[in-house]
């Protein structure tokens, strides 16, 4: 707490970690519900909290305090062992700056921190002489970081940046202004979107377009192909729900 009080970025960093890890675990067990600010999860609410009496709230807080004290008493100094093992670990401030620079997305697949936990990776691994300087760090989801490990020095930062590539005058790049909507839900994800065909061959015919400007389908990265295939399934389900025929 003392460190966080003097370093606002620490508070923001650990707030993100809490929302993406503890909050999701509790939500999966039906104990809390996510609070949404648009598409962003801004926090969590305890299920049924508004129905609790003052006495029940005080009992719940006392129970949490008691469980915490029991845990501390049982573990003792062992709870700090991970810090001793992680001597030389990156500071929370530096990690936050890397994640913020990546806009809280994996710099390989583009997935958001709200969907999958992100980790800070050394582009050139420490064991191969890589430094802790921010220029040698990138944000990867835990899956891709586990795959990369310390076997190579692949820099994925340029890959994620290309997902925002657009070209002025391109009819497909500019088509995002008319994203299709079925049942009040816009058909879009982080890497692709759906529009209604203005000259449909058949009723409900739609076009699925990647957000990145590329010359052909074969220039797409695998995450973009995954995003397109996911929209195919979503659009099909939405159309069938709206028109069973």
TrEMBL record:
Gene3D superfamilies: 1.10.30.50, HIT-like. SUPFAM superfamilies: HIT-like. It comes from marine sediment metagenome. It holds the Pfam family HIT. This is HIT domain-containing protein. Residues 168-245 form the HIT domain. CDD domains: HNHc. The lineage of its organism: unclassified sequences, metagenomes, ecological metagenomes. InterPro entries: HIT-like, HIT-like_sf, HNH, HNH_nuc. PROSITE patterns: HIT_2 (PS51084). GO terms for molecular function: endonuclease activity; nucleic acid binding; zinc ion binding.
